[in-house]
Amino acid sequence: MSKRILAIDFGASSGRAIVGTFDGEKIKMEEVHRFSNDPVQIGGTVYWDVLRLFYEIKQGIMKAAEGGRIDSVGIDTWGVDFGLIDKNGDLLENPVHYRDARTAGLVKECGGIIPDEEFYGRTGIQFLDLNTVYQLYSLKKERPYILERTDKLLFMPDLFGYFLTGKMTTEYSIATTSQMVDIKTKTWANDLLEKLGIPSSIMCDIKPSGSVLGKIRKEICEECGIEPVDVISVCGHDTQSAITAVPSSEKDFAFLSSGTWSLFGTELDTPVVTDESRALNITNEGGYGSKVGFLKNITGLWLIQESRRHWNRHGNNYSYADLEALARKAEPFKCFINPDAPEFLPHGNIPGRIREFCQRTGQPVPESPGEVMRCIYESLAFKYRQTLESVEKCTGKTYPVIHIIGGGTKDTFLSGLTACSTGRKVISGPVEATVFGNLAVQLLSCGDIKSIEEARQVIALSEGVKQFMPENTDEWNKNYDKFLKIM
Question: Which of 139, 148, 123, 36 is CA-nearest to residue 81?
């Protein structure tokens, strides 16, 4: 019999409920519900709209059930964000969104308490202001009464799982995004938390990816019209779900998970925690089967998404296809930005900030939307090359093929530019890598798929891929030096 399982996937601007049907060879997917995922700003703080989103999860379950029995459910989101639960089991406040400004400057401040060498050596996680540890440190400083009332912390996939089942645990992959897990023991680095004044007692036990969290509560089953089914703690971190779905038959591969963020790296059996990897700020995030995603977080399609929002707010009506077409027509190699410059993180006028960056660095200033887009595209492609070189330097390996996965694979222009910039063959697909990974871990959990290698073979059969080969490499090599000078 076919297995019907449900993946709930939260992206930067929308969430989806997608039913996967596994016939023993391929996974067929059907989107049954889509909803917006918009942060809400109140009083200067940016929050998750968590109760509405839980309502949408239940809507997704109901719509999935209309097509037949659901065998299990898995939830993934981005990393680092969390909810706080009091001793009565109630949510203390709406979870704060990682794009909130409360953590600005805290990496440096915490570095005065725990030296960077010690912090990275213990956790293997790159330093980002948005990491959970800095969010908690800001609470300790500014709103300690919230932490005093907290009994348990739940990361967002675990929080939604708690709402569904009443069970509280922490899934491994999402835990590692916090910068609070000891990379060797795979347990909480309690001594580091205590040094920062963060109570380690609020942390739940860490469970392996693919563990059964529990069955959906009786009252929710009645509300949604379903029989009790298991909620599986899939790789709750969407990046690790996507890595699970890389359709590679090789053990060693490079990947680029392309979406609002670009996650570029490789999968390893053991972490790389060296002075070199720390200096390059490369992270070691946990994945399925205790694998390590050795990767770097790069500002990705956010630059395009937010530019489009800005232009459309001011009377234009650009589609992503329109912007790609404008970029193709614009003059190449005119100017570049550092995609990870801090001014590009917040919402707002990204095109204006790009012009200011180019002016400040003595480059020609892009004026038209096409010129701005060309600047973004080429800068991302060069950033991917720089990151590939860093990963290869740290691992001592060479990766002749780059697998691009995720929603960004729809942008064939960027895939082609990445091949040209890196001088490597690019294999693009699957588009729905995060959902495929979510579904695959559910099937691994229940035994329908026996290994991660088999899961990747199933995914390779389930969705076609595109290939891109390098072109005009001499011109790209010459302009790469210009890019490095503005970094």
Answer: 139
pLDDT per position as a tens digit, 89-110 = 999 999 999 989 999 999 999 9
Q: Between the CA of residue 176 and those of 58, 197, 236, 241, 300, what are the distances in Å?
A: 28, 19, 11, 14, 21
Residue 66 has pLDDT above 90, yes or no: yes
> What are 411-441's pLDDT values in tens digits?
999 999 999 999 999 999 999 999 999 999 9
Q: What is the pTM of this model?
A: 0.91
**Cα–Cα distance, 154 to 165 (Å, whole number):** 13
Residue 301 φ/ψ, nearest 5 degrees = -70, -5
Instruction: Write the pLDDT tens digit of every residue in 108-133.
Output: 999 999 999 999 999 999 999 999 99
Q: Phi first, then psi: what are they for 47, rounded to 5°?
A: -115, 155
As beta bridge partners, residue 266 has: 254, 294
Chain segment 291-333, per-residue pLDDT in tens? 999 999 899 999 999 999 999 999 999 999 999 999 999 999 9
Sorted by where each starts, the structural domains of the chain and their CATH numbers stand as: 3-238 (3.30.420.40), 246-429+450-487 (3.30.420.40)
Residue 155's beta-bridge partner residues? Answer: 82
Query: Would you say 263 and 235 are in contact if contact means Cβ atoms under 8 Å apart?
Result: no
Question: The tokens of 466 are what?
Answer: 């595109």
Single out the residue of 208, 99, 207, 89 nearest to residue 151, CA to CA.
89
DSSP states of 313-340: HTT----HHHHHHHHHHSPTTS----TT
State how far the Cα of 90 lies from the Cα of 151, in Å rounded to an integer. 10
Query: DSSP H helical segments within 77-208, as ranges?
Result: 106-111, 116-123, 132-142, 144-148, 156-165, 172-176, 190-195
d(CA 39, CA 27): 32
Quote the pLDDT of residue 1: 64
Enumerate the active-site residues: 238
Q: How far apart are the first and last CA of the chain?
A: 55
